[in-house]
From TrEMBL:
Pfam families linked to this entry: HHH_3
Originating organism: Phocaeicola plebeius
Keyword hit for Transmembrane helix: yes
Protein name: Helix-hairpin-helix domain-containing protein
GO process annotations (BP): protein secretion by the type II secretion system
Keywords: Membrane, Transmembrane, Transmembrane helix
Gene3D superfamilies per record: AF1531-like domain
Length: 298
């Protein structure tokens, strides 16, 4: 029976031989890699030489900086002219003459472009990149007028809100002609609602009844008493000429209605009148009632 335990078929013997061969190859590869790529350890003497080299490089960098810059932080060879200056108005040429590096000058100009104001000499000292030695050298020459010292160091200026005089009770405004300035004089109408009324009027092509105002969000029916409609729509939908974008842009139209009109025009020609549109399943009776004042079949 023990012979059966150690009996392997031909395919099993092939697999065993293949695995044994792979193990032998891996063992040989490990020995070769271990001998060829044997890690080299840095000796203590070599480590000391490396540290000495790095220290000499750092020393050369410090020496270069000392040779090219004075104790005040001004680059040697640069002509420095000290004079009274206002950091809120001095241009780049003046700032460079004072010995300030180019990147510090750029930081000053960017700060001023964003609305920043230097109210005190100490505020000038906080500019990024400005060394303390440079600031102490320039401090006696910083001249800031008193009116600028009182200004707030802010990007935004305070805007006075002008009070708008409202219309008296009983005033009527032409709904199809009034601009936002006139609309804002109506009690209960602010800038946002005035803009929405004008925008919706432009999309419609003009109002035909006051109740259309309630199609605009946040417009209450109580505002209707301030308006009158004295003119017909100033722009109509050209059913037989307008393209898809113009047709669908009207509040009472949509993509499917516009597409149906274009398909009919492509297959059968111009649409003669409202009765033809009533045959389209995309148009309900309510749609046709609302659209009729705005349609042109020319």
């Amino acid at each position: 029976m023990w012979k059966d335990f150690f009996y392997y078929s031909r395919s099993e013997r092939r697999v065993i031989l293949l695995l044994l061969g792979m193990l032998v190859i891996l063992g040989i590869s490990w020995l070769i890699c271990h001998k060829v790529y044997k890690p080299e350890y840095v000796r203590q003497e070599d480590s000391a030489e490396i540290d000495s080299f790095l220290a000499s490089v750092k020393q050369r960098e410090v020496s270069y900086a000392k040779r090219n810059y004075t104790a005040s932080g001004v680059r040697k060879g640069q002509e420095v002219v000290l004079f009274d200056f206002n950091p809120n108005t001095a241009d780049s040429v003046q700032l460079k003459k004072l010995g300030l590096p180019s990147f510090v000058v750029r930081n000053i100009l960017r700060y001023r472009e964003k609305g920043g104001v230097f109210r005190t000499p100490e505020a000038f000292a906080r500019i990024y990149g400005l060394k303390e030695e440079q600031y102490l050298l320039l401090k006696p020459y910083i001249q800031i007028p008193p009116r600028e010292e009182s200004k707030q160091d802010s990007v935004y200026e305070q805007v006075k809100i002008q009070r708008i005089e409202k219309y008296p009770e009983g005033t009527l405004v032409s709904l199809n002609e009034a601009d936002t300035t006139q609309l804002k004089r109506i009690p209960g109408v602010g800038s946002a609602i005035a803009k929405m009324i004008v925008a919706y009027r432009n999309r419609l092509g003009g109002f035909v009844c006051l109740e259309q105002l309630q199609e605009i969000p946040h417009v209450d029916a109580s505002l209707n008493k301030w308006f009158t409609i004295q003119s017909a729509p100033f722009r109509k939908i050209r059913v037989n000429k307008d393209g898809l974008d113009k047709l669908r842009n009207h509040p009472y139209m949509d993509f499917y209605k516009a597409k149906a009109i274009l398909e009919y025009r492509r297959k059968r020609g111009n649409i003669k009148g409202l009765s033809r549109l009533s045959l389209f399943e995309e148009f309900t009776e309510k749609d046709l009632q609302r659209l009729s004042p705005y349609l042109s079949f020319e």
